[in-house]
Recover the amino acids of this structure.
């Protein structure tokens, strides 16, 4: 057995479950654990949906959270959807989200994290961690990305990777991230396909500019419609409604000594 495999087994033995959301109570998402972003301003990405707190866009049913994007007018938008934010925030850990994704051109589901406080300034200075993104025009390609002021998508310098996954819209897969002080690993179904690592040589000038990931972040679950990425090939109105189903969210303490 390779040395790094032994290290991964040891790390898993040290993990402790500190948050688990199994979505076992039907109705609205648990208000003690989740809150909503609401509005239709484009969200900085020219997105076309209006996020609501309506049950038609986000509900718990049959042991799953169901976020649904719909073709319907709301305010000045032509689509509605939901974006849920965890009320709790964490610094480091393993984050597991078991989900089934929507399909169709124009859908842009995401499982991601943002900083609780903008300690280093507005986006992207304080960072963003994308555990899973999927754009409908490139079906089956899962993306993971880390953003900072030095490495982010508008400068085309983001640290990112992708993996092809079968049956993303018909089967559930576990999208996971293990976040440590100087390294962040990304997985699908326990297969690691991307590691973002702090490089003290390349990024020695001001660490926060390349690695602002030393503050608590909260979790976000959403489906965007269209947008600067999701809408690059247009929006197929015939596909709606489309849903992302989340079976569970689990957060583990990694047993770090740092």
């Amino acid at each position: 057995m390779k040395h790094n495999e032994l290290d991964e087994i040891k790390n898993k033995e040290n993990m402790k479950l500190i948050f688990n959301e199994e979505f076992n109570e039907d109705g609205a998402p648990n208000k003690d654990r989740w809150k909503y972003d609401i509005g239709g301003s484009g969200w900085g990405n020219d997105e076309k949906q209006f996020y609501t707190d309506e049950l038609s866009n986000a509900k718990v049913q049959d042991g799953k959270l169901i976020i649904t994007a719909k073709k319907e007018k709301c305010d000045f938008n032509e689509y509605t959807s939901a974006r849920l934010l965890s009320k709790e925030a964490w610094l480091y850990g393993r984050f597991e989200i078991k989900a089934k994704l929507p399909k169709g051109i124009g859908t842009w589901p995401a499982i991601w994290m943002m900083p609780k406080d903008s300690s280093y300034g507005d986006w992207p200075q304080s960072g963003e961690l994308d555990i899973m993104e999927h754009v409908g025009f490139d079906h089956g390609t899962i993306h993971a990305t880390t953003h900072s002021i030095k490495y982010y998508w508008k400068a085309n310098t983001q640290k990112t990777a992708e993996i092809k996954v079968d049956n993303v819209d018909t089967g559930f897969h576990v999208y996971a991230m293990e976040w440590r002080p100087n390294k962040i690993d990304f997985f699908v179904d326990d297969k690691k396909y991307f590691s973002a690592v702090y490089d003290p040589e390349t990024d020695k000038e001001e660490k926060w500019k390349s690695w602002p990931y030393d503050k608590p972040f909260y979790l976000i679950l959403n489906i965007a419609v269209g947008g600067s990425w999701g809408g690059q090939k247009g929006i197929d109105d015939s596909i709606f409604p489309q849903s992302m189903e989340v079976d569970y969210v689990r957060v583990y303490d990694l047993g770090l000594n740092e």
Summary: The radius of gyration is 18 Å. Residues 3-19+83-253 form a domain with the Jelly Rolls fold (CATH 2.60.120.200). DSSP finds two helices and 17 strands in the chain.
